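Q: I have 118 residues here and want to know how they pack in 3D. Can you give me a structure?
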Amino acid sequence: MSKLVENENGNITIDNEVIAQFAGHAALDCFGIVGMASISVKDGLAKLLKGDNVSRGVSVTIDNEGIVINFHIIVAYGVNIKTVVNNLISTVKYQVEDYTDTSVKKINVFVEGVRVID
């Protein structure tokens, strides 16, 4: 289901993939986030995603109550995970709500790995 915005000039439809890409890039701007993760079903390992693939680590669902975003992330070694995740949630919530003019009902964050930053 896509987000439909109605105004006096007509309708605007925002695809879930567009919201996922926007949310993914907003998350990557947060301190302590190394990247999004893709989980291999075959071996259960998390793979670091960068660039245009960030939306593969983000899933978006939209219903009448708002937007639900699920992140699969990899964090930097040595950071406080709770602080990083709280920062990610508040930053993404603000930016997505401003971008789509729709409330974000819930953001779920799954920390899939830790990486040392060079």
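Q: Anything worth noting?
A: The chain is about 30% helix and 40% strand. Residues 23 and 96 are 7 Å apart (CA to CA).
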